[in-house]
Records
---
Amino acid sequence: MKSLVLSSIVAVSILVCGMSEAQGLGVPYLGIRDVQESSAANSWESLYNGDTINVIGGVVTYTGMPPGKVKYRIVIQDPTQTEWAGIEVKQIGGTLNVNVGDKIDLSNVLVEESRATTYLVYDAGSSASVISGGNSITPTVIAPSLLGVGLISANPAAAEKYEGMIVRVEGVTVGDMGLGSHADLYTLGDGAGSCYASDYMNQDRLAANDYHANTAIGASFTAVEGILEQYQKTSSGYDYYQVLTRSSADFVPEPATMLILLSGGAVLLRRRKK
Ligand SMILES: [Ca+2]
Ligand SMILES: [Ca+2]
């Protein structure tokens, strides 16, 4: 009889646990990768789309209002993962006060898929805790050809695992400007292939300009870094990936460019002396 009562209690406990999971009463603790990782079979959408979850261990890689824009942006990345590691946090009725480099845990955030981008929605019912500050993220080096160019060029099979992550393209030159839905895209090519980049989130861009002062046709860089974003508006004929520079520091100048700048400075000095 005793063992029967005990097994009944166990059975009831299992049932209750099972029910709370099924009804979403227990909010799971997940890493960013758990939220982002997907496949073509799931249309590259989060398996937690529509769920309210907790997300632990994201390092803030961007926070703030881009110059001249109206949408506050926050992006976080898990430093322990090399793929599916980044995600944007969308504030709706909640205020998330964090700094770049903060490692944070988020509670009660909604997973949302909107136009091929995965978001964590931070609202009045969400909360955050800062675990530590001063953390950095090592950019993931990718070939521009992995992203490609073209108004309908998105290839999620190649690029979706880097959505929201800091990526780096190396040995690149600006080939063209004034492209894309907002005419603010430019191409970065390394000779083997090209990708799109944009400075619209760059904190060091003048609000009146579409581009950072470094961006000009023919300008070459040792590397350009930024957050990878997919821009999809298929009704208007757009679906592409773009690298979003965050500040002047995301442009790594070529040694040759530095020399030209230095010699130019010397020429100026000589002229002033005359
Ligand atoms: Ca995407
Ligand atoms: Ca995604």
---
Amino acid sequence: MTRVMMLCASPRKGGNTDLMADAFARGAEAAGAQVEKVYLDDLWIRPVAHLADEPAMRVDLRADDDMPKLLERLAAADVVLFASPVYWAGIAAQLKAFMDRWSCYAGQPWFRDAMPRKVYAVGTAHGAPMPEMGEYVIGPLRDTASYLGGRYAGDVNFTGAKFAAVGNHPEVLAECEALGRRAIEMAREA
Ligand SMILES: Cc1cc2nc3c(=O)[nH]c(=O)nc-3n(C[C@H](O)[C@H](O)[C@H](O)COP(=O)(O)O)c2cc1C
């Protein structure tokens, strides 16, 4: 069974990126995948602490929070959806903090083995009317997927600030659903 983990960064449950993730899940489930949604804002994940230069020497000094358990579940996923709004021309801190902590584990064989095996996808929303605003989230996450050696299924970018506004845009949700199906197909091609 293909496993999907959706990392939802917005604290707004039922908001734009959350609804986009739900649509992605519909596509993935229709393709036969098992989907887990994680609301990062419900977890206690601190920003990264001091790290050694040499990856093999690194220790996660803050491993007493929710990070290690979530990372273990992430390692087992075949497909990862990053669902984050644009916050101040960047990724929401809830997701950024989780990703920064990956660096603590970057020298460990299991991490180096697990991360390149995955298919990655992105859903984002932003209030400003220029579609390129979405690149502030999409660009770094696409580059991260590439840096990790994973495959990139694509992204969906919604322009709208109001709570759940994407609900009035079935074409955007259909794009998310199609992205979910495509990500599962790609994961099976591996
Ligand atoms: C803290 C914060 C920062 C934001 N920064 C930006 C921004 O830099 N550019 C932008 O276009 N929209 C910005 N927005 C608007 C959100 O990206 C927009 O409302 C989005 O639809 C929220 O997605 P959500 O419903 O999934 O939370 C910001 C919103 C918040 C709360």
---
Amino acid sequence: MSKKKGIGIHINSHFAIGVIFASILHHFFDFTLLEFLLIIVASFVCDLDIFFSKYAKDRNHRNLITHSILPSVFIIVLGIIFGWTALIISGIAYFIHIFVDLFDWGTNFLYFSRKTYGPRFLIRKEEKNLQEYLAKYKNPHSFFDFKYYNNKVNISIEISLFVIMMIVIFIFAIEYFLVSFFYFLGLYFHLSRHFKLKRIEAK
Ligand SMILES: [Zn+2]
């Protein structure tokens, strides 16, 4: 039985947080399009480490160095060395992603301690018998995916982030408004996966 975990806070919500953050700061720092995109990419890019899950402890991408505090510290230091404000802010955006991930399934925050940190609201209850819960599903991803979409708080947070993103980019960064449309790419990724898992489990 694979112990690989599903993605918690979804990539589209991390994207929305990135847009909100970049748009508000754009008001003060007047970013170029490239800088604006850099900050947003920094806010979701580490979830692409899911493709390297097989190298992670317990096959959980949240245990990889990319989901620890180290890359954000590295990016911030680089930003300070080059005196590039947008790079420092990108490092902070990366850090916010890791911080937010602490609240659903947790991450290997300090990396070298090889422990999962965070309040881990989505998993606490089942953690002791996780294998038992996972065994109920044909695909272990289904456990995490269904738990996410059956949680009204998750759905409310996801919708709220989308609405706030649209309002904030409209007010503070209207010239980059079209960037918000990439949100739907992330949403499509998760929804198509959700319905695929639903079909698999229904068989
Ligand atoms: Zn993540």
---
Amino acid sequence: MPPKSVAASRTTLTELMIPSYANFGGKIHGGILLSLMDKVAFACASKHSGAYCVTVSVEGVNFRQAVEVGELVSLMASVNYVGRTSMVIGIKVIAENVRTGTVKHTNTSYFTMVATDDDHKPTEVPPLLLETPDDTRRFMEAMKRKELKETYKEEFDNEKSRIRVEDGGLDILKKERCIVGYDNSDSNDFND
Ligand SMILES: CC(C)(COP(=O)(O)OP(=O)(O)OC[C@H]1O[C@@H](n2cnc3c(N)ncnc32)[C@H](O)[C@@H]1OP(=O)(O)O)[C@@H](O)C(=O)NCCC(=O)NCCS
């Protein structure tokens, strides 16, 4: 499979924030921005892979500043990393005040997309041609993020297995802003 450059699939989606996108506080709903991010990630990943892509994971969604009605939001997406069937799409979101021209960077997030075939099974994607030092840095950062995510998962699974809701295990809650308001001798757990 011949490699494809980062530039070949770089995609920008721009949309005006209309009043129906606002929440009760008058700011743009986070869900609207997430939906736009998913769309641009899909377009970018599909361009790189030439396949139908699905979202498997979303990372780094921190809304640093509110987006206002009337602002022009641009989402710039590029392939940061490719595995065998997966691609990490980096998305930078900016919001522009069209009257003043002021631009703010609201967030940068990473969507992992998987290319699928006609049977909805993961299918191989082209290698990534890194044409600039920035392309290379982003690829290496994505490798590190992936490695740390795996370490975090292992550590969390390990720590999780040590969490006890009985026999003094609740001591760690002493400095937290919560109150155990049930009889602790009869604990029900619906999540695990
Ligand atoms: C995506 C999907 C087809 C993958 O199927 P699967 O049987 O898990 O396939 P694999 O285990 O071979 O994983 C495929 C790739 O996804 C990657 N992957 C799977 N889960 C992941 C996760 N949580 N985070 C990052 N990468 C992930 C794997 O590392 C692998 O990458 P690689 O081929 O580049 O090494 C399947 O999980 C699916 O259909 N998920 C639902 C997707 C969807 O509906 N999304 C819409 C939003 S709800």
